[in-house]
Sequence to fold (732 residues):
Amino acid sequence: MLKQPTPHVLHPRQRLPLQRWQIFPQKVELAQKLAEATNLSSTLSQLLINRGIATEEAAQIFLNPESLILPPPLEEFPDLAKSLNLLQNAITSQEKIIICGDYDADGMTSTALLLRSLRWLGAQVDYDIPSRMHEGYGINNRIVEVSHENGVGLILTVDNGISAVEPIALAKKLGLKVIVSDHHDLPQELPDADAILNPKLIRESSPYRGLAGVGVAYIVAVSLAEQMGQSESILAPMLELFTLGTIADLAPLTDVNRRWVKRGLQQLPKSKLSGIKALILMSGVQPGGGEGNNGEISLSTLSVGNLTTNNQQPTTHNSPSSNRKSLKPEDIGFRLGPRINAIGRIGDPRIVIELLTTDDMGIAMERAMQCEVINKQRQDMCSEIEQQAITIVEAEYVTSLQQNRVLVVVQPDWHHGVIGIVASRLVERYGVPVFIGTYEEDLTNEPSASQKIRGSARGIPEFDVFEALEYCHDLLGKFGGHKAAGGFSLSSENLAALRSRLSEFANYCLEIQHLKPLLKIDVQVNFNQINHELYQQLNVLEPCGINNPNPVFWTTDVQVVEQETVGKSRSHLKVTLAQTIDNQLYKIKAIAWRWRDYFPLPPRVDVAYKLRENQFNGNTTIELELVGVRLPTQSHLLFTSISPFLRTTFKYNQEHYTCGVYQNRSLNELRIKNSEGIFLVVSPGCNTGLLGANREKAMDVDLCQPQFDGLIQAAVQALEELGVGAGLTYQY
Fold:
């Protein structure tokens, strides 16, 4: 009989983050083999395996991206040669060129990059960016018509244009040449441009496949400069703008992005671009030390080891150098990028373009200050709208979330430049796809049926936002996006129908167990293993970002010794954690950003975290950045007053199951059976279960694994629908 430990019970006032933990399977033999081949520790090798790097060859390229053999871009992009010739001819003949950009960080850095490079090469070039508030995304008829009136001969789009069939057709009709450079998903119909540059049009195995819009612009700029014999002077500044835009746009940091970003992060602190220097100064980012999230608490994220310059190779993999003169992607993601993006969301993109193209340090500091002020306005606006949205959800929608499996919130007077950020925060809080919108007109009275709603959507891994929008296409005006996010518009008269249709779609593709944010965890460690050596070893993974995330570790059953809310708004949680190993107590400090709602934490918890270096008064310590917490895994299933002999059926992942509460000796247990007669038996308070056709031949399984966790949650939900949920609690 399995032992039932004393359960940990939440105090009625306490709540924990809504999460489902997915712990990577530990491949001990493969990790050891990879460790021997790469001279890494087995922990580092396991981290590589978790990122899909399981061979010595793949590991060597990952650890030393300069060894990646890059094919010439001219061989990869079919229309690149034609694009370069069109641009060179325009420069030679002094034909006017207009760059049509976008108002996000990718689009603005792309615009600045090409403006700088084309001007350096002698082009007569200007730019235009559509208004987020009044025109929306991408090249439009107004831009085309104004360009024609101003005598422009060539339009070059950046980070947009792949879906702009009508405006580009108008441009061709008016006699303008058009080059589309974009990276977004391909529509069914491509525009009739003179040339199209899009990594989605090249082979899937190409190292250029993951480029953002600024990556395509970088290739255009460098290739054109090389063709015209003037590349040396512009390579460094173009690389810096590429790095800034690539990280801010959340492009995957793999393949050529990893190689170039790694170079760019070393280049940025010694940038000669006035705008970059001003932005770094204004944001407080400094190589080797700085502030934490939002600058409210000192928690350094800037320590960097072994990075590759243009011509240098790393000499070893397990002994990173002491080079601390580089930035990390989070410096851009949390400090520099938001200041640029804030302008595109609620300000004038021309501020950023001038910031990144001026050579006057005085002007650059003025523009950087504007970015600072507007970013603060954006932060305040986001916080205010987020709190309003939470109040509305808690009052009107929270009780029906499991039934609807999607959240649709529409309110007047919300700025649609920031509602996408709020949507992401609501996804984190409630674990369901979120569609959030506001009315385009200023409303003094109640919304009318004729008014237009404009919104943003954010999804979860099992929910495709773009497919959901297509499912509702007849109710919408304009819409677009991809799997994780999208934008849409509709008449307010269709709002009720949209709620119903989205719920229908969500119920089709989402199970109950999906309605928790997914936290992917790499490997379990104990506090006695956390030290400077481990932290320095992690530097071989840099730069970390999309498709190469910062490692997430976890430790089980730790004690919360101290905890307090900190920061200007008391919105963060600072804690001291302790773990006893071989009768010795190990303590470590931790920070949890924006965790005020979870204060106080229970006295004992499992924690998931990233490692961070903190520098204070000349001392350097390793601290934790908490990303997940749950009751200890020994508290999986609790029975209280429930009676045995309860039975029901349910469906999970398109398969049918039966489940029930049975009595085994003096204890109740949950049994789940599939159509083939295989049982999963879960005893209260245990983190392992029995799996098999009968108890005698059953095997022990780890209930922490997501396939069992999801199945148990679905069974508990089915029993709750019988009205007995008060006696059965699943706390994992």
